[in-house]
User: Fold this.
Amino acid sequence: MTSDAPPDAFYDILRGVAALTGNRVVGDLARLVADGMPQDLWIAFNHKQIGSKRWLVDALAEVLPRPDGPVWVLGAWYGVLGALLLDDPRLTIPAVVSVDLDPACAPVAERLNRRHVAEGRFRAVTADMMTLGFAAQEPSPGLVINTSCEHLVDVPGWLATLPTGLPLLLQSNDYVREPDHRSCVPSLEAFQAQAGLSETLFAGALPTKNYTRFMLIGRR
Ligand SMILES: C[S@@+](CC[C@H](N)C(=O)[O-])C[C@H]1O[C@@H](n2cnc3c(N)ncnc32)[C@H](O)[C@@H]1O
Assistant:
């Protein structure tokens, strides 16, 4: 956008797209942009990030549309996935808990999801996912989602902290060139071996221009 565009140009465009499409997530994004967004929000909302999360929501709608308890999203960044999950009419999700290690994420996630925060259906927590005691959580999670497996140092070590039988949705990728990626896998089969799920409801690969994303839905 040129420097002579008005400061609220992005807000006006997004409000226009929300009006055109009736998409409430775009409306929520417009408000976030209007009252201050982090500089790297564009990465969280780029077409590859949204594409992989749409893929996730579509798969969940097929195999696990009504999780039996709140959905915990780990490594949730700015809460984009929570917004998509709570907006999708095919899913029945009582609440989303959005967890990230980076304290800058929670305030942004809660502003993006402000409608759901007001209804008591969304909260953002700053925590290390390695330290969450899911066995003691009340109410019990209906599903734990981790789309940031590639960022963990020890994926099997994290999985070992979870109760057996817990419903899980995991994503990883083969994008080894990204310096923050510590646990990339070369194939879907390698991801299945790394995850060691006791039951698998979905296993798939989504090729993109520079890398392939992998997803598993099942039980620990
Ligand atoms: C780049 S983002 C998300 C990438 C992911 N592929 C996605 O689209 O959801 C990775 C996030 O994981 C978070 N993260 C990394 N290690 C974590 C941990 N141990 N506990 C909680 N969050 C963590 C980071 O702070 C970051 O916000």
